[in-house]
């Protein structure tokens, strides 16, 4: 298994419309504002937040694990989503487990769906991963019905690899997922 350490503490990535940076305590209200909307969390495999305390618990988890970047919208001056780099499904796949890899996961406020912001942020994180972290592979997974995440995967150059399942700790259920891969160098075969 090739999991590369990743710590968001000193990371700041700018795109045309976004700043990707570590979450801060002052982001709690923005986080709750998008995470409490039905469909937003469910699309990412977790239940929407029912209270600001739910958001505080998850935000504290972000602080502890240091794997998730806030998506700060420059024009609107607020956090509208997140992009995380986690242990990838590729680490258990015989074809890819030898590759330095991360799983990219993301969530975006429903108010901003359809504007290309997630793809913009994910492309910047991929560039950072390949050029700074030394990754050669990214995994990405989404539920079969999540056409928006499939579209982000396509826009960012990912290709379908396999269908699988993962266990959602927050929902306490197994969820089907469609797994995609992005390789820096196609010489892995």
Could you explain how this protein is built, in words?
The chain starts with 12 loop residues before the first strand and ends in a 6-residue tail after the last strand. It has one domain (13-188): Aminopeptidase (3-Layer(aba) Sandwich), CATH 3.40.630.30. It has five helices and eight strands; from the N terminus they run E-E-H-H-H-E-E-E-H-E-H-E-E. Helix 1 crosses helix 3 (52-65). It has an eight-stranded mixed β-sheet with strand order 1-2-3-4-5-6-8-7, with helices on both faces. 28% of the residues lie in helices and 30% in strands. With 189 residues, it is α+β, with helices and mostly antiparallel strands.
Short summary of the structure?
This protein is an alpha+beta fold and 189 residues long. The protein has helices spanning 28-35, 40-44, 52-65, 117-133, 147-155, and strands at 13-14, 18-22, 68-73, 78-86, 101-108, 137-142, 159-168, 173-183. α4 (117-133) links the parallel β5 and β6.
